[in-house]
Amino acid sequence: QLQxxxxxxxxxxxxxxxxxxxxxxxxxxxxxxxxxxxxxxxxEREFVxxxxxxxxxxxxADSVKGRFTISRDNAKNMVYLQMSSxxxxxxxxxxxxxxxxxxxxxxxxxxxxxxxxxxxxxxATVSS
Length: 128
Fold this sequence. Notes:
Elements: E1 3-7, E2 10-13, E3 18-25, E4 33-39, E5 46-51, E6 58-60, E7 68-73, E8 78-83, E9 92-99, E10 117-118, E11 122-127
Parallel strand pairs: 2-11
Antiparallel strand pairs: 1-3, 3-8, 4-5, 4-9, 5-6, 7-8, 9-10, 9-11
C-alpha cells in the first residue's frame, strides 16, 4: 500500500480556485491509479476524479466536469487536483486514494471500496 499525504486545502470564495496536492510513498506510484474523493458533513464519501496509470485516462464526477482537473507527476510521486470555479457545494474534506488494480469498466474507479490506500484528507471550504 501507498502512504498518502494531502495538502493544499483552505478557505476560498465562490468562483475561486484551489490546488490540492498528494504525495505518495511506499510503493511503485507509477503503477497506481490515483483518485480523489470528498466527503461533506453529513454526507457519504463521493468520487471526484481519477487518473488511470495504465491507460492515462481521466475520469470525473459529473458535478466537477469542466471545473476540476486531475494530474500526476510520476517523477515526484505526486497527484494534483486543480479546482476552479468553486462553489459552496464543493466544501468537503478531500481525500487522495490509490489502487494498483486495473479495471475494464471505468465506473469501478468511481467506487471507494476499490481503493486500498488513503490519505488523511484536507479540508476545502468555499464561502458564498
